[in-house]
Amino acid sequence: MSDKSTREYLMSLLDEAERNMIGDALGEVIEPVSYELKEDDADMKTADFYAICSSCHRCQMYAKRSVFARPLIKQGKVLFILPYPDGNMLLSDDDIQLFRSWWKDSILLREGEWALTTLIKCPAGMWDKAAADACRGYLREEMLSFRPSAMVILSSDASRYMLRSSSDFQSMLCHEYKVNGIRTFVSYSFSEYRSDPSLRVPIWKNLLFIRSSLGLEGRRN
How many structural domains compose the chain? Predict the structure, then answer.
């Protein structure tokens, strides 16, 4: 049996034990969970980390989990942090296109200079502080692994949470912060942009501020 098969088998036993403990032997409350992880060029430390994450039971969201988000990595110098995955994907195709055509290009980042991940690792559907509390340690591990030169937190909720701020979000734009010693900026998320077209101007000005702060003015993509 391969290491991957062994891992998935052991994780399925954990779920079965959990069901038995709460009297759900038939799986009517806790549905079977898919722990399949995509293989990539990541080193064994990273692969082991996400194997552990995929069996996380730190909050009640695991009972509905069908996926545990892994980041989209381009050897990123700049790490973009979304609040939570879009369903069973890190990002929808439309959001990936929006990210590439606006956020990435406005900052003048090239391919290979960015990475995308989420704060909450299970599909949440909406902001959930309890899930963020449970997942924050995983994000910290990613930050240590990726060692980004800068981070951009996407969404007002995730930004206030990570920066421990209750300020009006627009007043937080066009400022630089530090999280675990890493230069950090905030921005509205893709969904916030789509729901309120009036945000185009503050988002654009903020992206220009991030570009300038990172010393990328005048760069050719």
Answer: 2
CB 135 within 8 A of CB 119: yes
- Both 183 and 88 in one domain: the answer is yes
In sequence order, what are the residues at sequence separation of 6 or more whose Cβ sits closer than 8 angstroms to the Cβ of residue 154? 80, 81, 82, 83, 186, 187, 188, 189, 190
Range of the domain at 178: 69-221
Provide the token pair at 187.
């921005």
Q: What is the pLDDT of residues 111-152, one digit of tens each?
A: 889 888 899 988 877 899 998 998 898 898 888 888 899 999
Identify whether residues 196 and 211 lie together within a single domain.
yes
Give the tens place of pLDDT for each residue, 89-119. 777 888 888 998 899 999 999 888 988 889 9
Residues 35 and 76 reside in one and the same domain = no
Report d(CA 157, CA 163) in Å as an integer.
Answer: 10
CATH code, 170: 3.40.470.10
Same structural domain for residues 61 and 75?
A: no
**What contacts 173, CB < 8 A, 6 or more positions away?**
186, 187, 202, 205, 206, 209
Strand, coil or helix: what is 221?
A: coil
Exposed (0-12), middle (13-18) or buried (19+): which is 96, by Cβ within 10 Å?
Answer: middle
How many whole angstroms separate alpha carbon 115 and alpha carbon 2? Answer: 30
* 134 and 61 in a common domain: no
End residue of a domain, out of 23, 50, 67: 67
Among candidate residues 142, 131, 115, the one with its CA nearest the CA of residue 83? 131
Q: What is the pLDDT of residue 14?
A: 58
pTM: 0.75
